[in-house]
Every structure is written in structure tokens, then in C-alpha cells.
Amino acid sequence: MKAALDLPVCCDEAPPAGSPRDCAVLKVNHLSLTFPGEREGLRAVEDLTFELREQEFVCVLGPSGSGKSTLVRVLAGLLRPTSGSVHFAPLRGEGRPPRVGVVFQQANLMPWRTVVENITLPLELQGVPLEAARQQAAEMVELIGLQGFEDTWPRDLSGGMAQRVALARALVQDPDLLLLDEPFGALDALTRERMGGELLRLWQARQKTVLMVTHSISEALLLSDRVLVLTARPGRLALDLTVNLPRPRDEEMRYTAPFGELARRLRAAIV
Amino acid sequence: MKPAALEPLTLNAVRLLRRHGHWLLLVSLLAALAAWQILVTLAKLPAFILPSPVQVAARFWAALTDGSLLRHTFYTLSEVIAGLLAGSLLATLLGYGLARSHTLERLLSPYLVASQAIPIVAVAPLLVIWFGPGMFSKVLICALIVFFPVLVNTVVGLRAVPDNLRDLMRAMRATRLQTLRHLEIPAALPVFLGGLRIGATLSVIGAVVGEFVGSDRGLGFLINVARGQYDTALVFAAIFTLIVLALALYGLVILLELRLLRYQHAPRPEAPR
């Protein structure tokens, strides 16, 4: 995927310091992707158009086979769309390719690297000197609360800890966009709930634009500013719902009327 | 895969040896020597059929002190190491090519498999005819015998690099070279080292085969000469030296593994009580 940086996006000039700009960081235009196959092939996603604003937390919901993961893989540059386009806004200087941090369902840590070495990997790839990289990684370790595990091998981490390291690895390079593909899907329910709170804290601390794929309606409502609902194969945009619940949110919110109303609308949109 | 199946066995042996090693090893060695001595004494075997351990030790000492054993050992060891290095280097490079390109694999694999169907013992005379009785033909034989297991393990190791880690590297915009360095090499290393371990012992066999066919130096040559003179004790002395050589090389690769694959062998942290 070539991110076209030359195309006009709503704000090209830097925003006033410290204030989020109310404009698109990412524009997805009529994105379709068909996997080649028998006859017409497998249409994974079709005609998706949406924008992500800076520091916005957006969840993508949809039944299995609605192309949620395909969407993430296109945005991560792992798949090329069949038609349509993805544009990143020029951020922090022209010409720099957009940085995208990805967390998958599996932590995908390198087993031959310790916790800290896993977190420094994206920095090393960008040519950051090792000393500086280690320092930034140490800060991330503190942020995810894994002090004391810096030199632990991944095989000795629990699922939740490994996933937190994967989050730290995605965040350490200060990405323009954080993509989360069912990051807590492989965790047990309790760990999953705790990780949701953890993620909110990280998001607030780091002010990132986040696109997260999930199966859970309540997870989507507790975390996000907006929820995109995709239809079953091929994935089309069924609903773009703004979540106007007040922040900070907690588990108690599940039992309030506005939450129930939003959950009902989401449930109805997922066919 | 053979080397992978070997792994737990060898490492268990290493662990066992570490724990009570010296005792177990000593007891079993002494028992074997005693049995040997008893057999020779009871069966009244002549020394040219089966020398007693004492006679072998005496002959070993004589060959060691007159310098001939060390000279031949050094010669063979040079062949073994040069062949091991050359063979595994070529196998690694070609293995990387084969793992990356299916076209190359389809082009070359018939020859590679066929080359394995020919016993090295049958090719060795040819190589000695072509390249002379000097060290070069032996190094070539060692390299040939080492080549295949290292090649196969390189290809298997590289092919087994998990796709999700490849995706991760691509999402982080890693270059080809970075992917090789940070993903492919470390991921393929365990299987590759398994191949190297097999290659190390095979290389010793290659050198002896080469020296049998045509050489005027080396432990294989020494065995040949001693056999001609019915100096069976010297044959035994040379064989034991070869065993020590092969074990030392094997141990060296294991040390390399313990060092490079620390993440697999490091003791796990104690479970919290």
C-alpha cells in the first residue's frame, strides 16, 4: 500500500500546540478488496468510506467474515486494496511515511528477545541508537506496569503480560495510527476486562488515534468514541455510530440506560 | 524431522550429566573397561585380534609420546574443520536461496536428492583421482558429506519462520536485510544448529573415508597402516582418538546452542510460592 501524502487532506498545517485537531488523520475512500479465487473471487470488504480524526478511538464491529481483519491488514500495509484508496494526513513533517503500530490477537513476540528487546525492535528498525531505544522501552515498560520483567523471555510471560508487551511495542515508535485486531481475543474474560481499562489508560496517556477490531459490543462501547459496524461478507459499512457516553467510563456504565440504548442499536445493526 | 527429535534426548543427557555427571560417567566407563579386560583374559584372545585395554593404553601412550598420533590427529582435524566450515557455509547460502525461491528449488532439488543417493564411499576414489591424495580432496569429501544435512535444516528452518512474525516485520516496514537479521536468522537457528550437529560428526567420517582411499597422513591412514602390520592396539588407539574428536566437535556445537539459544535453555524463574 502506498500512502499518498500528496493528496489534500483537511488540515495540512500544524494545529495549535496541545490541542487535538478536529480533522481526518486517515481517509479511507471507496475501499474494496477481493481475494482472487474461483469465478469472481472472495469479496472481503466493499466500498468502505470513512475517516479517522486525530486522537479518536474507533471500534470496528461485525460478524465473522465481515472483513474486519482484512481492513486492518490493508491499513497496516500488509494487503493492497483492489480499488479505492487509503490516505494518511501529512503529520509532523511532509514526506515521512506514516507510522502504524499493529497489535494482533496473538502477541507475536520474538521468543529470542527479552521483554525490553521486543519493545526496542521497531526503534532499532528505524535506526534509533540502541541506548536511546532502551531508554524509551524502559519508559514503556513502566507505562504497562511490567517493571521487574524487563529481561524476562516471552515464554515465561502470561497471555495478558505478553499482550501488554505487544501494545508497548506498537506504542513505542509513537505511531500515527494504532491498529488493534482483536487484541484481547485470546485472553480470558477477567484479564480481558482489565486489559480494556489498561488500554484506555494508555490511550489517554499517549493521545493516539486508535482503530480497534472487536467482537464485543460492550467492549466497543466502553472504549470508543465511534463504532463502525460492518455487514457480513462482503463487509460494507452498516452503521457509523457516535458513542456520546461521558468519559471516564467504567464497568458500572454497562448498566445505565444510554449504554443499553446504544448496545441495542449496535446489536440490531449486526446481522 | 530427525534433528528436532534428537534434541530433547541430547539435552536431557546434558542435563543428567550436569547433575550427577562425573559419577555416572566414571562408573559406566570403568565397568566397560573391566568387562573388556575380563573378556580378553577369559577367551585368551591374541593381541592382534583383540588387545586388552592395558595394551591399547600402552600403545596409545607410545604413539602419543613419539608425536606421531598428535601429528596424524592434527592433520585429520584440519580436514574435518575445513570441510565442516566449507560445507556448512555453502549449504547455508544455497539453503537460503532454495528457501526463498521455489524455481531454484525445482531446478536443483533432483540433483541434490540424487547426490545423496550416491554413497560418499563410492565417490571418494573419484575425488582422490581428480584432486590428488593431498588435503584438498579430503576437505572436499568432508564438505560433501556435511553439505546435505545442513542444507536441509537451513531450508526447513527458514520455511518454518511463522507467517505472523513476517507480517509483523512488514507492518514495521522492515527491509529485506532487517527481516533476515532480526527474524529469519534467529528463527531458523535452532533447526540449523541441529543440522550442524549432525554435520560435525559426519565430517569426521568423511575425513576417515578420504584417508582410507588415498592419503599418506591422518588417523584414517594410521588405521590402514596399523592394520597392515597387525598392530591392532594402534588401530584401537586411533579409533578412540577419532571418537574423542567427534565428541569434542559435537560438544562444541552443543555449547554453541546453549549460548545462542539461551532463550530456550535458560532456567525458568521459580514459581511464586
Summarize the structure in words.
The complex is a heterodimer of chains A (271) and B (273). Chain A is of the alpha/beta class. Chain A has one domain: P-loop containing nucleotide triphosphate hydrolases (Rossmann fold). Chain A has 7 helices and 9 strands; from the N terminus they run E-E-E-H-E-E-H-H-H-E-H-E-H-E-E-H. Chain A has a 6-stranded mixed β-sheet with strand order 5-6-7-3-8-9, sandwiched between helices. In chain A, strand 1 and strand 2 form a beta hairpin. The longest helix of chain A is centred in the C-terminal third of the chain and has 18 residues, at 189-206. Chain A is globular and about 50 Å long. Chain B has 273 residues and is an all-alpha fold. Chain B has a single domain, classed as Orthogonal Bundle (MetI-like fold). Helix content of chain B is 85%, strand content 0%. Chain B has helices at residues 2-43, 53-65, 68-100, 102-117, 120-131, 135-159, 163-171, 176-213, 219-228, 232-260, 262-265. In chain B, helix 3 (68-100) runs parallel beside helix 6, helix 3 crosses helix 9 and helix 5 (120-131) crosses helix 6. The longest helix of chain B has 42 residues, at 2-43. The two termini of chain B are 39 Å apart. The A-B interface holds A 73, 76-78, 97, 100, 102, 104, 106, 108, 110-113, 121-122, 124-125, 152-156, 173 and B 162, 164-165, 167-168, 170-174, 178, 182-183, 186-187, 189, 261, 263-264, 266, 268-269.
